[in-house]
Design a protein that fits this description.
CATH topology: Jelly Rolls
Order of helices and strands: EEHHEEEEEEEEEEEEEEEEEE
Structural class: mainly beta
Strand content: 35-45%
Shape: globular
Distance between the termini: 38 Å
Largest sheet: 8 strands, antiparallel
Length: 301
């Protein structure tokens, strides 16, 4: 399976943040790992009434170092992407597609909307877009390292329905993929019970060395009708992925240890179309809204 990636030079974002690069899977298929096969044999994957117990984590030695409950339209923890993106995605990212509801939920809304804007935040050449959406990146960087051997990234999310929607919760560092990328969640709007995990690493810019890192997770319940909690536990020799408190994938091979000590930012975004889809029919796209209740990060020894 061929994967193609675009490299963007490091640049300033909002005056201080380094430029981010286009680091997403471009093929529409994935090879399921043994961990996914084991998870699929479980009685139930996913829960519509799961309650995340932060006190239990604290008792187990985890310390919370970041929390955003999105109680107001305050995005000071995040950099907001402005411009087009990569991977043949169809959307223009802008702050106007972010909102906070009265229930304290972050809404990332894709819209059928014609705009003209920069091809990317780092390429000022104008381009016409038929859709808009939004993307947030954390200002803080996180790392599984000697100082913090275990890092746990957690978010409570309701995925959008809609053909051609590509929601994602992930982390990466610049220059890609030398600081790695970990996809905790990326899904297709026309697949309400499925999502994918993945990771990338390379020793030189724009050269991913990981092969067959993707895993498809199939939930027993809809990921669009209810809220679900997605977690990554990042350690030196393992990436452990959880859905609603249940381990659904563990990646230990290839270049997982090479991610140790790398620094990554957290990303929340909703793309429209792109090469994550196979045979996408543009006129069938149905815009939707990705909702995020909260994002938390914990560390442990």
């Amino acid at each position: 399976m061929k994967k193609i990636y675009l490299l963007i030079a490091i640049a300033a974002l909002s005056g201080s943040c380094q430029k981010e690069m286009a680091s997403k899977t471009l093929d529409g298929s994935a090879i399921e790992s043994n961990a996914a096969t084991r998870a699929s044999s479980a009685n139930t994957i996913g829960s519509s009434n799961y309650v995340f117990d932060e006190s239990a984590l604290a008792s187990a030695g985890w310390t919370r170092i970041f929390n955003d409950d999105f109680v107001s339209a305050d995005y000071s923890n995040w950099n907001i992407w402005t411009g087009g993106a990569y991977n043949s995605e169809l959307q223009y990212y802008q702050a106007a597609n972010l909102s906070i509801t009265n229930n304290d939920y972050l809404n990332i809304t894709a819209k059928k909307q014609t705009v003209t804007g920069a091809s990317t935040p780092y390429d000022s050449r104008k381009k016409r877009f038929n859709y808009t959406s939004a993307r947030l990146e954390s200002k803080n960087l996180y790392s599984s390292s000697a100082a913090t051997p275990k890092v746990r990234m957690v978010a409570r999310i309701k995925l959008p329905a809609g053909y051609g929607m590509w929601p994602a919760f992930w982390s990466y560092g610049d220059p890609w993929p030398t600081e790695g990328e970990i996809d905790i969640l990326e899904a297709r709007g026309q697949e309400p019970t499925k999502y994918q995990t993945n990771y990338f690493y390379g020793t030189t810019a724009n050269n991913n060395l990981v092969q067959n890192g993707a895993t498809v997770i199939t939930s027993s319940v809809s990921l669009q009708s209810d809220w679900h909690v997605y977690e990554l536990i990042w350690e030196q020799n393992a990436l452990t992925f959880m859905l609603d408190g249940q381990i659904v994938d563990v990646k230990t091979g290839s270049y997982v240890p090479s991610l140790f000590g790398k620094k990554e930012k957290i990303v929340l975004n909703l793309a429209v179309g792109g090469k994550f889809f196979t045979g996408l029919v543009a006129n069938k796209i149905v815009p939707g809204t990705m909702q995020v209740d909260w994002v938390k990060v914990f560390t442990a020894n």
